[in-house]
Write a structure and sequence with these properties.
- The chain is an alpha+beta fold and 209 residues long.
- The protein folds into two domains: 126 residues, Jelly Rolls (Sandwich); 62 residues, Winged helix-like DNA-binding domain superfamily/Winged helix DNA-binding domain (Arc Repressor Mutant, subunit A).
- 43% of the residues lie in helices and 26% in strands.
- Strand 3 and strand 4 form a beta hairpin.
- The longest helix is centred in the middle third of the chain and has 27 residues.
Amino acid sequence: MMPFDKKILSFLKPDLVDKILRESSIEEIPKGTEILRERQYVKVLPIVIEGVVKVYSRFDERELLLYYIEPNQSCVMTFYAALKNTPSKVFATIEEDSKIILLPVQYLPIWLKEYPDLNELFYSQFNLRYTELLDTIGHLLLDKMDKRLYEHLARKLALTNSPSIKMSHNQIANELGTAREVVSRVLKKLEIDGKVEQNNEGIKIIDAW
């Protein structure tokens, strides 16, 4: 197993951390790798140490971004599928080069009973995703597409700690659940308004909303 700082899991009891590290693997996975497919049975539960993982679903060949998994977080959809032994309803792809703990799911039922603080990890994840869902509904109801797109780009820049985003208009449209033509038109408007800049290096935010 590669070197690992136990402080990253300091919210768990030390003996549980030792068990997790003994039974799990820690892998460095490059950007773009699909680590979970729809209808796949879950064998390992990811806990992100470094990097970002994108969780999404597909509807009529169109992707819909559900949420990102950031460091010290896991995936509630994967967690539920693992506990119920049901096929995954989502896809998961490495958004940025990541280091991830892969916890074999057969240990989950035992550890959840023995260590209540492990439950807290997933309760907090459910609460986080529910809050994000409410925020998304609020944006859909109240915000125009220009603000939604701007805030989506700003969040991706913050997650990746990058000065620019290199994505096609089609990829952005998939994540927002809209059409490529809409994204192209709105990006042009944001450019005219002096909010973003598009060049060969990608899309860059140049002014606050």
